[in-house]
């Protein structure tokens, strides 16, 4: 059996496509790293790396060995963490950090589906651990490896402090903020976003929320005559106040679609008044637990 460090070398090379960068990642000199890859090729009895082109790529044999290498390293990491933290086995757990609203909607649906599917394949119960808080705090949990995944909003106005050199992501969903008001209130007061002079009561978000930053550029660039009447710390609170007729506000379409269809809420303006955004799922580039790796693989399909 090849030494574990050689398998980790192969994984590093597959990620960086560069002997120099992979050597830096593995904290060895370039010549030493090259020798270790040759040792692995000698053990495998096959050429694992195509060195004829820059950036370098793994050969078919190299890619086949990579699959096994990633599996072995992931299992060893899982066992190591289990031995170091008795009573806290996370090999069959889905650990996610996210915001409060996402935790109760998109993340909850995705986590339940994935835990059921992977649980059936592994013939074990896959538990779900969801931790919520501010995005910077959730990023810290991911960096400390206290969670496997971070699910958060993505928009040009947001600066998610996740270094892409160490983490990767995929788009888990997409949505858009839509200006809405109570349909009953609108029948009394016809809010007009084009009216630059008549104040419109505005239910908005605290500036500590990602939602505030997603909307900020759009609202600053507009000529809406908005008069804030409430500052909310969650979508749920803003949604409740708007339904009670306290004012207008921008809410995710996924939240208000049913209310708008039923006539409880009314959409104001058109597409030009909406703000699209996406939801991303981040993970470390280092191997995760068996269950987490399987969940990532199925989510990327």
Protein described:
The chain has 301 residues and is of the alpha/beta class. The chain folds into 3 domains: 4-84, Winged helix-like DNA-binding domain superfamily/Winged helix DNA-binding domain (Arc Repressor Mutant, subunit A, Orthogonal Bundle), CATH 1.10.10; 93-173 and 279-300, Periplasmic binding protein-like II (D-Maltodextrin-Binding Protein, domain 2, 3-Layer(aba) Sandwich); 175-275, 3-Layer(aba) Sandwich (D-Maltodextrin-Binding Protein, domain 2). 46% of the residues lie in helices and 23% in strands. It has 12 helices and 11 strands. The chain is elongated, with a radius of gyration of 25 Å.
CATH superfamily of the largest domain: Periplasmic binding protein-like II
User: According to CATH, what is the topology of the largest domain?
Assistant: D-Maltodextrin-Binding Protein, domain 2
3D shape: elongated
What's the mean pLDDT score? 89
Q: Work out the oligomeric state of the chains in this entry.
A: single chain
The helix-strand sequence is HHHEEHEHHEHEEHEHEHEHEEH
CATH architecture grouping of the largest domain:
3-Layer(aba) Sandwich
Distance between the termini: 32 Å
Radius of gyration, rounded? 25 Å
What portion of residues is helical? Answer: 40-55%
Report the sheet-strand fraction: 15-25%
The largest sheet is: 7 strands, mixed
Helical run tally: 12
Low-confidence stretches: none
Keywords: DNA-binding, Transcription, Transcription regulation
Pfam families: HTH_1 (PF00126), LysR_substrate (PF03466)
InterPro entries: LysR_HTH_N, LysR_subst-bd, WH-like_DNA-bd_sf, WH_DNA-bd_sf
Protein name: LysR family transcriptional regulator
């Amino acid at each position: 059996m090849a030494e574990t460090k050689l398998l980790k070398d192969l994984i590093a090379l597959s990620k960086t496509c560069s002997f120099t960068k992979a050597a830096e990642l593995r904290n060895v000199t370039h010549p030493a790293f090259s020798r270790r890859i040759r040792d692995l090729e000698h053990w495998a009895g096959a050429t694992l790396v195509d060195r004829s082109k820059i950036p370098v790529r793994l050969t078919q044999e190299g890619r086949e060995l990579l699959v096994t290498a990633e599996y072995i390293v992931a299992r060893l990491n899982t066992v190591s963490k289990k031995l170091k933290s008795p009573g806290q086995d996370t090999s069959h757990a889905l650990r996610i950090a996210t915001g409060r609203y996402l935790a109760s909607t998109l993340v909850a649906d995705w986590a339940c589906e994935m835990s059921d599917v992977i649980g059936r394949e592994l013939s074990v119960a896959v538990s779900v651990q969801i931790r919520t808080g501010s995005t910077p705090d959730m990023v810290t949990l991911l960096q400390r490896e206290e969670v496997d995944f971070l699910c958060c909003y993505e928009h040009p106005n947001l600066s998610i402090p996740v270094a892409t050199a160490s983490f990767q992501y995929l788009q888990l969903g997409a949505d858009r903020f839509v200006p809405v008001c109570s349909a009953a209130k609108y029948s009394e007061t016809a809010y007009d976003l084009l009216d630059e002079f008549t104040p419109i009561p505005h239910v908005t978000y605290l500036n500590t929320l990602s939602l505030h930053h997603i909307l900020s550029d759009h609202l600053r660039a507009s000529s809406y005559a908005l008069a804030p009447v409430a500052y909310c710390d969650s979508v749920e609170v803003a949604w409740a106040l708007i339904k009670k007729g306290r004012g207008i506000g921008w809410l995710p379409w996924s939240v208000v679609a049913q209310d708008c269809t039923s006539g409880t809420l009314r959409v104001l303006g058109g597409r030009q008044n909406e703000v699209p955004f996406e939801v991303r799922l981040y993970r470390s580039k280092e191997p995760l637990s068996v269950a987490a790796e399987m969940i990532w693989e199925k989510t990327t399909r």
